[in-house]
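Appendix B. Raw example, untouched.
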Amino acid sequence: MSIAQQSMSSVRKTQQAMSVVAEVSGEWVAQPPAPRPISAVRGRMRVPADGPLVAYESALERDFLMFCRTDHRVRSVQAQQLRLHYTERRTGKRRRYTPDFVVRLHSAPEAAPLCWVIEVKRREDMFRGRPAIRGAYAAARVWASQQQAARFTLVTNQAMSGYWLENTRLLSGALDGLNESRPATLGIQPTNLAAGSVMAN
């Protein structure tokens, strides 16, 4: 899908989202929260490799952060520091939603977003409790549309698998404490991984 097609698709999705939620606003949390004990796999990782520690609460979130730290375009990642408030049009109830990550890029192709609001989820979980999460994702899409060069997307385990995931894990490990020549000896370059970017919706 071309950048122009992605942009048109995003506009349609935003229009649909506006029919689901209203009065969307966001606030930033100054300090990132500690990882919650909701998974056996939780911890912190430096993203980018020489950047601040970013928390993850599942193996899938950890894999996504590995992708981010091996993509040279990524400038920063914030975990659960954006809180969105919105009203469900159907019920009139006021709700709150906290996306998993906000990713900012150094650069992107013309007309492509520089800021991504990210929810990381297993594909099979997307269909569980769908009515409950519909409003949350709609709010994230609307909020992103109100910002400059921003977009909301879901990243699933289906997008992060196979050789891509193996290479990402290998390169991420190589970035921890090894010199710059090591990735080249492994035959892996960050640009190869970035070519299969998961942030493409």
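End of appendix B.
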